[in-house]
Design brief:
By secondary structure, this protein is of the alpha/beta class. It is built from 16 helices and 13 strands. The protein folds into two domains: 196 residues, Rossmann fold (3-Layer(aba) Sandwich), CATH 3.40.50.2000; 178 residues, Rossmann fold (3-Layer(aba) Sandwich), CATH 3.40.50.2000. Helix content is 40%, strand content 16%. It has a seven-stranded parallel beta sheet, sandwiched between helices. α1 crosses α16 and α12 packs across α15. The longest helix is centred in the last third of the chain and has 18 residues. The model has no long low-confidence stretch (mean pLDDT 95).
């Protein structure tokens, strides 16, 4: 009888599903029976989950209605082992309950420093009595939001209660401990030999352009403005930044970029995982321009392995683990440097043979260090003692 693992997602409409689905795939590759459980706070699942992955979800709501929804999800969780993704109330909080009540081993994965979005260690919640009552009682009160930083702060203190911890970068490992589990890629699916670049460009309307591709959600710390300013500087009309997907974040950030730089930006809708290799095949360069920001330092951008697995030249920045990941196989510039980005774009297009050779080296490194097989080896050693 196979061992069941319940993977708990913080928000299946909030972008965090990327790491959720990745870990679920690895667990299935190891032969475990996997079900993903989570809340959906948006209108639809994002990113689109892989085919055949079992997902059970409930609609995310604020407190106090959140409590019965949490109970509803809690009673569905039947795994022999619980694996919570991110130290949030909606995942790790739920996992701690199942650990205590069901006596189930609990693993926690951290792929972001959640508190960095709110000021990190400097953030404090010190309301007066009236403010506290408003935060609790008003319909839109601060403490009615399950994602409020106060709950994140509490849950960070409970991280040692997990039976095992995985993290995807050095910053998080230094801060919280745990075992390094990189953002791997299915290098059998993401194989450039299986896809035709020209067909991809034609299918997605990119045939007339030289394409700098950014697969994922546009956010300020990800530095897209620096690339767009670089294109302003180069002023070559056939260059385009192609943003693929992006979650419903409600702040209109990507829309603002599209309004300010319509001459350089193309937005393609989110694609199923199985379709992404074909999309990436149409790129000339993958661009990962992380800014020098606490949130960016605590991330392993999965766009790196999108590009590495598909043997694409990659331009990224000297932030967090990126220089180590791309050492010798990509192009790393200083963060917040449109001029350096512009120079690197021009160099790559003037030296495509050398750039593509470096892309091939990136694929080899991805197979060796950032594949699902590599992740499987790591997780197998973590989970086996818990079975």
């Amino acid at each position: 009888m196979s061992i069941k693992i319940s993977v708990l997602a913080p928000d299946l409409s909030g972008g965090g599903g990327t790491r959720v689905y990745l870990i679920a795939q690895v667990l299935e590759q190891l032969g475990y029976e996997v079900t993903v459980y989570g809340f959906v706070f948006g209108e639809k699942l994002y990113p689109i989950p892989p085919k055949n992955l079992v997902i059970k979800w409930v609609k995310g709501v604020n407190l106090p209605q959140f409590i019965p929804k949490m109970q509803e999800l809690f009673h569905q969780i039947d795994g022999d082992i619980i694996y919570a993704i991110k130290p949030r109330l909606t995942s790790f909080g739920l996992g701690l309950l199942r650990q205590q009540i069901g006596k189930k081993p609990l693993l926690l994965d951290i792929d972001d420093w959640e508190m960095s979005w709110f000021g990190g260690d400097e953030w404090q919640y010190r309301p007066g009595a009236k403010q506290l009552l408003r935060d609790i009682l008003q319909k839109d009160g601060y403490l009615r939001n399950p994602g409020a930083p106060l709950y994140l702060q509490w849950l960070e203190k409970l991280i040692p209660r997990a039976n095992a911890l995985t993290v995807n970068n050095q910053f998080l490992q230094q801060r919280f401990g745990g075992t390094y589990l990189p953002n791997g890629k299915d290098t059998r699916l993401f194989d450039p030999q299986l896809y035709d670049r020209l067909s991809s460009r034609k299918q997605y309307g990119l045939s007339d352009y030289r394409v700098l591709m950014f697969p994922g959600t546009a956010r300020p710390h990800k530095g897209l403005e620096d690339v767009l300013m670089a294109l302003d500087h180069l002023n070559q009309p056939d260059l385009r930044v192609v943003v693929v997907g992006g979650r419903e974040i409600g702040d209109g950030y990507l829309e603002k970029l599209l309004q300010q730089w319509p001459q350089w930006l193309i937005h393609l809708p989110g694609q199923p995982l199985e379709q992404m290799p074909l999309v990436v095949a149409g790129a000339d360069i993958i661009i990962v321009p992380q800014r020098n920001d606490p949130t960016a330092k605590a991330q392993f951008p999965i766009k790196l392995t999108d590009g590495m697995s598909m043997a694409k030249p990659i331009i990224s920045t000297r932030v967090g683990d990126i220089p180590k990941i791309l050492e010798g196989v990509g192009y790393v510039v200083e963060p917040n440097s449109p001029g350096q980005i512009a120079d690197t774009i021009a160099w790559i297009f003037n030296n495509l043979e050398e750039a593509n050779a470096k892309g091939n080296l990136g694929r080899q490194r991805c197979i060796e260090q950032y594949s699902l097989d590599k992740m499987s080896n790591i997780l197998s050693e973590i989970i086996s003692p818990l079975c």
